[in-house]
Write a sequence for this structure.
């Protein structure tokens, strides 16, 4: 369903007298949750990418303040 414009659970529309129930509205609420989840995943991926590049920048700055040997030794001392 995600990344698609197709309705989820299309069979709901084929239920007898479904218009007199709240099933279609409930299905639309589920579709909205899926759409929101897709957007949150996209935002998380973008944030993760920015964080990764920030770590590279911070490490480069550390190597500007301390020698490469000192930085690498510190990384090894904590298991990196």
């Amino acid at each position: 369903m995600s990344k698609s414009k197709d309705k989820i659970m299309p069979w709901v529309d084929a239920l007898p007298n479904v218009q007199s129930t709240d099933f279609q509205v409930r299905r639309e609420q589920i579709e909205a949750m899926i759409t929101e989840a897709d957007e949150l995943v996209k935002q998380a991926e973008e944030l993760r990418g920015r964080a990764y590049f920030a770590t590279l920048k911070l490490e480069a700055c550390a190597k500007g303040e301390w020698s490469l040997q000192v930085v690498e030794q510190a990384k090894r001392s904590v298991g990196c």
About this structure: The chain has one domain: 20-78. The mean pLDDT is 94.
